[in-house]
Amino acid sequence: MRPRFTVLAALATGIGLGLAGCGQQPAVTSQARQEGLATVSASQADPTSAWAEGYCGAAGSLVRALSTLPSVDPSTLQQASRTSSELMGSVVEGLNRTSAALRSLGPSPVAGGDASRTAAVAQLDGIRVRADDVRHRLDSSTDAEATKTALRDARSSLDELDRLDLLRGLNDVPQLASASSRIPACQELVKQPR
Question: What is the pLDDT of residue 95?
Fold first, then answer.
């Protein structure tokens, strides 16, 4: 299952409105226990669970960052460009923090974990580079067509984030998938909204 990035759909719509008009994860609480999730903390867990918990914590930081993105003001092309640039700056910052958190995990205690993390970091870094490019183009656009193109690219970046599946790396490694199924931080990332 993929982490929920539902806020991105609303933001992409805001950018789309800008084009048309102009031409946090909750903390795990006792509720998680009531829903039947076994709680595992890194200090009490085996190394595999501790690593999976750190991985899910990094993924959760991206979800939290994306849930607090600034709004896009589609009232004018200039406002849409300015507010989309601010949004893309926040996206870049969230992606940087998540990549850094994943890199700082240390070596995976099981085979396949490091390769999964490396692939996730590469994917995040690719999205970050494209989002930062869009932000720079939004900041430097001097004509309406260039601004509209940059706004479309901003929406594409958000769509790319929406398709991101950071937990795939854990799910592709049986030991990590098993450990993540017992960790509330991982389960919160895949829990469907009610």
Answer: 96
* Neighbouring C-alpha atoms within 13 Å toward the C-beta of 18: 31
- Which is nearest to 55 in space by CA: 163, 164, 165, 185? 185
3-class secondary structure, 33: helix
> Within 10 A of 146 (CB to CB), how many other CB atoms are there?
14
Residues with Cβ within 8 Å of residue 125, at least 6 apart in sequence: 95, 99
3-state secondary structure of 1: coil
In tens, the pLDDT along 11-53 reads 554 555 444 444 433 333 333 333 444 444 544 558 999 999 9
**Full-prediction pTM beyond 0.70?**
yes
Burial of 44 from C-beta contacts in 10 A (0-12 / 13-18 / 19+) = exposed
The angle formed by the CA atoms of residues 109, 93 and 11, to the nearest 5 degrees, is 110
